[in-house]
């Protein structure tokens, strides 16, 4: 997918000193070292982003129908949500494919999820408002990850592992920058699409790049089975599919593959975002087949510290229906 947001596009942040529901605008450069942020409870009605997955969003919020809540109703809503049982639905999803989170993710992205996310990550106009917004959010995350990678020095000749490459939205731009890329994904369908896109964009010469970029090496693999050593390892928008207990091991393994730098994005876990996610889980669409997990920045930081890494840069990317924390970690 070609990144749809320009590097000069402003990114929105919630600032702890603003007690009303507003957004501050920061440039992507500011994103890399933003002030400590914490979302505040809104005092006016707002559209609730279903953070569970784009599939729940597409099924429940079609661009014209939204769940709306005022800030004064947060406590009441939390009480109602405490009576729901999203874990039961998650267990049923796992039973369908005969396994846990990994099997659910693999089955989904090799089947119905592949076509849906290929469309979201692509450039087709055949997307609804929510999917288009998620496409924008993901592209901003990709752009800012690339900025993290290229800010200090060019990446020509630098080895990069793109763990969870999807359709190649990060791997292909990195190859254009001259990086030597291993692109892996748990979904064979996603890897095949990424390789197809790379051949069209890198080998066809339509961009007139000189010297010709090195084609990424594509591999079907889950995160924990990846091998080798790379200057930098990047894992974007993958941890949302795994609980913290699994994410800890994945983060540790990814760090063991990286020599200089590890870049991660994840859906941030705060009381506010967790509440919005639970609202989305009240309305599971018929095609919803993946689970969604939020992760607190403190938990991610602890997982990194356990293996001798520290966070050097951090930022928050938000659109109406997309929230992601982006961090760059280096050896402590």
UniProtKB/TrEMBL annotation:
Disordered: region residues: 24-46
SUPFAM superfamilies reported in the protein's UniProt record: S-adenosyl-L-methionine-dependent methyltransferases (SSF53335)
Positions with biased composition (Low complexity): 24-45
Gene3D superfamilies reported for this sequence: Vaccinia Virus protein VP39
A GO BP annotation: chlorophyll biosynthetic process
Protein's name in the database: Magnesium protoporphyrin IX methyltransferase, chloroplastic
CDD domains hit by this protein: AdoMet_MTases
Gene Ontology MF terms: magnesium protoporphyrin IX methyltransferase activity; methyltransferase activity
Domain of life assignment: Eukaryota
Keyword field: Methyltransferase, Transferase
UniProt domain Magnesium-protoporphyrin IX methyltransferase C-terminal: residue ranges: 235-330
